[in-house]
Design goal:
Length: about 280
């Protein structure tokens, strides 16, 4: 009996071009790319750009890639207001106040509100542990309100004491873009807390998109401040790690208030370091 497999030529080994790649990286379509940018702009600023259809969850997760770019635009806007007020001849404390107010307006005070929410949560828990003090009085001013006032005063003071408008531009661009890049890192490291609108919306961004966000934030930092940016990025990263550890140990994940608090703390840490180094 003849074996049907005899005299058959073995199939040639697959060529390198025919072997599927272990990692496939596909460029986003123009429609998806625009949708990602719109989602980032609408969340981080007061803009309300429309989309033809509701974006898919994967597009929303990838939108966090562009957080540092939007952050840089916010910094440029605030620095431009400061420069304009300086040309009019107003003193530094006034120009810095206008710069901070303009950024609050552009962002709808989003992160300040989220920071206040997190501070309130911790303040209320401390009050419960202390049984609201020996008088058991009802608080009329919340901890979050006091925290936001303190943050705004510190921002105005830091910007007002920078040497010149160029340093204001450089400082605001770096702190605004890097703080939002680190928001993406925190969202990828911590699990989203169910029931929180921000966490439910963005979930966890893909690892490649997190890397792109960090590269964008770091590249813009070095572009505006050169070699001096390295120390500032490291200080911002350390501040972000401390806030993220709060989320990991106490909240067991991330939510909007944690991301807002992280952004505010990193922004202040970077501004403070620039002020110390000038």
């Amino acid at each position: 009996m003849i074996d049907p497999t005899e005299n058959k030529t073995p199939a040639p080994p697959p060529t390198p071009s025919s072997v599927p790649s272990a990692i496939t990286v596909r460029a986003p379509s123009p429609e998806n790319l625009w949708a990602e940018i719109v989602i980032a702009l609408n969340y981080l600023t007061r803009l309300n750009l429309g989309l033809k259809e509701s974006p898919k969850p994967r597009v929303v997760r990838r939108a966090m890639t562009w957080f540092p770019v939007v952050g840089a635009l916010i910094g440029i806007f605030g620095a431009s207001v400061d420069w304009t007020m300086t040309q009019i001849g107003l003193p530094g404390i006034i120009t810095a106040t206008f710069a901070v107010i303009s950024m609050l307006w552009a962002t709808r005070a989003l992160h300040e509100e989220e920071f206040a929410s997190l501070v309130n949560q911790y303040g209320q828990s401390m009050d419960k542990e202390q049984k609201i003090g020996w008088l058991k009085e009802e608080r009329s001013v919340r901890y979050g309100t006091l925290a936001v006032i303190l943050v705004i005063i510190m921002k105005i003071g830091a910007i007002a004491n920078l040497n010149n408008s160029d340093l204001v531009f450089q400082g605001l661009i770096l702190c605004c873009c890097w703080s939002r890049a680190l928001m993406v890192v925190a969202a990828s490291w911590l699990r989203p807390i169910e029931g929180d609108p921000v966490a439910d919306h963005f979930q966890q961004p893909p690892a490649l998109r997190v890397l792109i966000a960090v590269v964008l934030g770091g590249a813009m930092g070095f572009a505006v401040l050169g070699e001096d940016a390295g120390m500032l990025l490291a200080v911002g990263g350390g501040a972000a790690l401390l806030v993220a550890l709060v989320g990991a140990t106490h909240l067991r994940g991330y939510n909007g208030p944690l991301l807002g608090a992280l952004q505010q703390v990193v922004e202040l840490a970077v501004l403070g370091m620039i002020l110390a180094e000038q």
